[in-house]
Structure to design on (592 residues):
């Protein structure tokens, strides 16, 4: 989980503390398409996984991201 | 029967709505439809309401646009009374928003309620502000008559239609002013180039504060076609966007290549998506060939691909290029194409002399869409809106684009070679790197800063801030930068130096930094 939180903080430019909340795309100023793309690439690199298009479509909140990643690892 | 001669955009829209009253103007994603008659009456009522607020020709109206029926009607109402509108980003950083308000000095600011809107932090009493998403606003509008406003007669071709803000190297955004006549010509160009009819359905994915939306708005509403408003939250989720668009059935798509690349990278796009589409057109930045080839494989058998080019200063688009199989065989970026009919391009050197055919120089654009200049900024206007340096017989305004181009020796089409300054494109947005550096100046512990854009195997499309600073507190830096810069301008990486390299003139050597980062 710590690893995911670091990725969220770095790519979405938010304080590390906030990654513990369940924020959604509308709660984070910097969560636009560019940072979403960076986020997905960073997750795939860090966990060595390839996410499906359907999974990516659901990854719009921190909790959904954690749930999706847990399916792969 | 209404007159076919239109010298302003209000008259043209009036004619379109009169001829096609029951045609669909807006196809909302939730299935709500708005006819031309409804949009015409609504915008007429707003036009009268604006007049009761003493808004008249040449008064600027700032709009935080949420792509609803009402927000499109606000733009149309402004056009009808000759009040130039400026669509400002509802998510603007507060300091940048203040700067755009100070430059445009709107007489009225129209906003909607949203928890993430800059309006929540904007406390200026100097601008009359109205919430157009409130019930009270609708009630007030409905007390006005729905006839086309008489004052429209006073709106002449040179009246500013809109102000579009773009990045400025001094740290202050520049407001590009475009007139009614320039947009009328643009509409004619789009009709001819895309052979649009009232049966066409345009996507409106581009944010309204972004120049590409000029095409979406004018090419659709001013030809009697339909528009599908796409809200920002939907465009961030490409699979859901495509599902919604498959239902809404667009025929013409216009976006930056980055949006299409985003859909491919997010594994959202299938070859069977958007079965009703007949044209995909893109511009604002180069389309990386590896991604273009994938899209071409998916769609080229049934969809026409058009690459377009044009600075904001020349009314959105001034050249187009139809992509063909031949373009897939080479790795170079697509050509910019031929300039639109009525335009001409000069390729000039630093002495403002034409270079021989085939040599690289700065593209200087002349023609009917060359804008009026920068709002309340004569100095910057004079620097780039200049007299045609080659014409020695009469005055003729041309725009110095800053784009380095060369012409193909045989076809004479323009090929993009780079920029002569530090402007870059990211997600299609124009960014003057100096605007980011200026934001660093407001952070007291940063001694020196230089921002470079690097796109190589090691750093893919990264904005890198090179800093000298005693404190390396990136959270604090980001907190300050967010007040001045929109998210697409925030650096991705920070590198710290004891001293930044300098050139012979003592200026920070950006090329040296870039070379180091490339090595």
């Amino acid at each position: 989980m710590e690893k995911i939180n670091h990725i969220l903080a770095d790519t979405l430019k938010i304080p590390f503390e906030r990654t513990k909340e369940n924020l959604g795309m509308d709660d984070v100023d910097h969560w636009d398409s560019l940072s979403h793309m960076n986020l997905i690439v960073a997750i795939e690199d860090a966990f060595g996984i390839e996410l499906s298009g359907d999974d990516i479509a659901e990854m719009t909140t921190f909790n959904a991201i954690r749930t999706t990643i847990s399916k792969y690892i | 029967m209404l007159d076919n001669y239109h010298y302003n955009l209000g008259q043209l829209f009036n004619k379109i709505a009169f001829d096609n009253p029951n045609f669909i103007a807006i196809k909302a994603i939730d299935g709500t439809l708005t006819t031309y008659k409804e949009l015409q009456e609504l915008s007429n009522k707003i036009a009268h309401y604006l007049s009761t607020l003493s808004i008249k020709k040449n008064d600027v109206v700032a709009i935080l646009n949420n792509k609803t029926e009402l927000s499109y009607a606000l733009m149309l109402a402004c056009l009808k009374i000759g009040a130039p509108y400026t669509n400002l980003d509802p998510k603007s950083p507060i300091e940048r928003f203040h700067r755009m308000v100070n430059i445009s000095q709107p007489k009225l600011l129209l906003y909607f309620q949203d928890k993430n809107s800059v309006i929540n932090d904007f406390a200026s009493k100097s601008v009359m502000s109205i919430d157009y998403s409130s019930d009270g606003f609708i009630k007030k509008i409905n007390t006005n008559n729905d006839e086309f406003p008489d004052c429209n007669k006073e709106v002449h071709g040179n009246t500013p239609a809109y102000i579009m803000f773009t990045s400025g190297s001094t740290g202050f955004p520049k407001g590009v002013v475009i007139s009614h006549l320039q947009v009328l010509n643009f509409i004619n160009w789009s009709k001819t180039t895309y052979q649009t009819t009232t049966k066409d359905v345009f996507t409106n994915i581009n944010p309204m504060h972004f120049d590409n939306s000029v095409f979406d708005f004018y090419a659709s509403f001013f030809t009697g076609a339909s528009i599908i408003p796409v809200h920002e939250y939907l465009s961030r989720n490409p699979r859901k966007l495509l599902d919604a668009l498959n239902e809404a059935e667009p025929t013409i798509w216009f976006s930056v290549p980055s949006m299409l690349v985003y859909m491919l990278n997010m594994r959202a796009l299938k070859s069977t998506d958007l079965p009703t589409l007949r044209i995909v057109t893109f511009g604002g930045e180069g389309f990386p060939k590896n991604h273009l080839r994938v899209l071409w494989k998916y769609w080229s058998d049934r969809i026409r691909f058009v690459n377009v080019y044009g600075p904001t200063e020349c009314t959105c688009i001034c050249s187009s290029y139809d992509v063909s199989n031949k373009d897939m065989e080479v790795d170079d970026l697509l050509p910019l194409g031929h300039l639109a009919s009525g335009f001409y391009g000069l390729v000039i050197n630093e002495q403002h002399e034409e270079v021989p055919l085939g040599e690289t120089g700065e593209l200087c654009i002349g023609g009917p869409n060359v804008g009026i200049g920068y709002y309340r900024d004569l100095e910057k206007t004079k620097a780039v809106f200049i007299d045609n340096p080659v014409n020695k017989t009469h005055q003729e305004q041309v725009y110095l684009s800053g784009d380095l181009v060369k012409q193909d020796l045989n076809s004479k089409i323009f090929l993009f070679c780079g920029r002569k300054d530090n402007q870059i494109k990211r997600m299609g947005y124009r960014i003057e790197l100096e605007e980011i550096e200026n934001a660093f100046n407001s952070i007291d512990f940063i001694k020196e800063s230089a921002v470079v854009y690097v796109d190589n195997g090691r750093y893919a499309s990264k904005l890198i801030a090179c800093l000298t600073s005693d404190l390396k507190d990136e959270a604090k830096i980001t907190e300050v930068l967010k007040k001045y810069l929109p998210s697409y301008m925030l650096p991705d990486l920070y590198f710290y130096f004891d001293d930044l390299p300098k050139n012979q003139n003592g200026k920070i050597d950006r090329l040296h930094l870039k070379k180091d980062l490339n090595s």
Remarks:
- Chain A touches chain B at residues 13, 15, 25-26, 29-38, 40-41, 51-54, 56-57, 60 (CB under 8 Å).
- The radius of gyration of chain A is 11 Å.
- The mean pLDDT of chain A is 90.
